[in-house]
Amino acid sequence: MAEELKGAPVAKAIDERSKADIALLAGKGMTPTLALVRVGAREDDLAYENGAVKRCERVGVACKKVTLPEDISQEALLAQIDALNRDDAVHGVLLFLPLPKRFDQNAVRAALSPDKDVDGVTDGSLAGVFTGSGEGFAPCTAQACIEILDHYQIDCKGKRAVVVGRSLVVGKPVAMLLLAKNATVTVCHTKTENLPAVVRGGEIVITAAGRAKVVGGECFSAGQTVVDVGINFVDGQMCGDADFDAASQTVAAITPVPGGVGTVTTSVLVNHVVEAAKRQCGM
Questions:
Q1: How does pLDDT run across 82-108, given as a tens digit for each residue?
Q2: C-alpha angle with apex 253: 236 to 218, nearest 5 degrees?
Q3: Structural domains of the chain, ranges and CATH numbers in brackets
Q4: Do residues 176 and 131 make contact, with C-beta atoms less than 8 angstroms apart?
Q5: Rounded to an integer, what distance in angstroms lies between the CA atom of residue 228 and that of residue 207?
Q6: pLDDT of residue 175
Q7: Do the bridges between strand 184-188 and strand 204-207 make them parallel or antiparallel, or are there none, so unpaired?
Q8: pTM for the whole thing?
Q9: Pick from 272, 261, 279: which is nearest to 7 by CA?
Q10: What is the DSSP string of the chain?
Q11: Contact between 164 and 145 (Cβ < 8 Å)
């Protein structure tokens, strides 16, 4: 059976790093603060908001909820984001996406300062990931994948890595983060021919396709490490993009769903807020 790469120990280690930095910031009279900007009350947004607030409270990051009505105008939303950009007491902003369809989402994303974009949704933050400049922040879920690999001492250098999925939220940025760790990366998608053969050739596999168990048993080979980003529901049960039962009979290690990447993501978010505060005061 494969080793389960559980997220809880990884999240705990990240939280401890955050707490140590928060103690240093306290000595400078600064409390890292996250603003959560939510339009309307989508159920998934509320669930993530609750998780983020609890993690912030546990670690010592302050939260400012900016709850906006569903019918707010784009101009008013842009004004709110501008105010947060200029507020030195706010170090990170989490903008819940997607916005209602009537908004120009690209314009709203562009309005947020990359310095405060702790979830990597702006073009500036993504440019930092793709160029390796260190500016902005990587999308939290993509960074969570790397944190898991690092925590379990899985060396990416020279390894063949296969990413299934090419979204700007996970697939593309995690491919760049793996390249930065000197992996040789292949990105797969819906048009990839003979997907199982390509995935079998990977030593590290990141599944981020957004479809339940789309990466089946025929995709895996001995010795692989599989990081499953997927959160799907089948018959009321949460499952990943990888067929966990099939994979665990073959691969060396795999993240569970639930209890894997998702557990780490909010800790990464909070750590990004702390890092943003450190940058602001020159640490």
A1: 999 999 999 999 999 999 999 999 999
A2: 70
A3: 29-113 (3.40.50.10860), 140-262 (3.40.50.720)
A4: no
A5: 5
A6: 98
A7: unpaired
A8: 0.95
A9: 261
A10: -PEE--HHHHHHHHHHHHHHHHHHHHTTT---EEEEEEES--HHHHHHHHHHHHHHHHHT-EEEEEEE-TT--HHHHHHHHHHHHH-TT--EEEE-SSPPTTS-HHHHHHHS-TTTBTT--SHHHHHHHHHT---S---HHHHHHHHHHHHTT---TT-EEEEE---TTTHHHHHHHHHHTT-EEEEE-TT-TTHHHHHHT-SEEEE--SSTT-B-GGG--TT-EEEE---EEETTEEE-SB-HHHHTTTSSEE--SSSSHHHHHHHHHHHHHHHHHHHHTT-
A11: no
Place of tokens 């993690």: 55
pLDDT given at position 283: 81
Around Cβ 217, how many Cβ atoms within 10 Å? Answer: 15
Q: What tokens appear for 242 in the block?
A: 């990888």
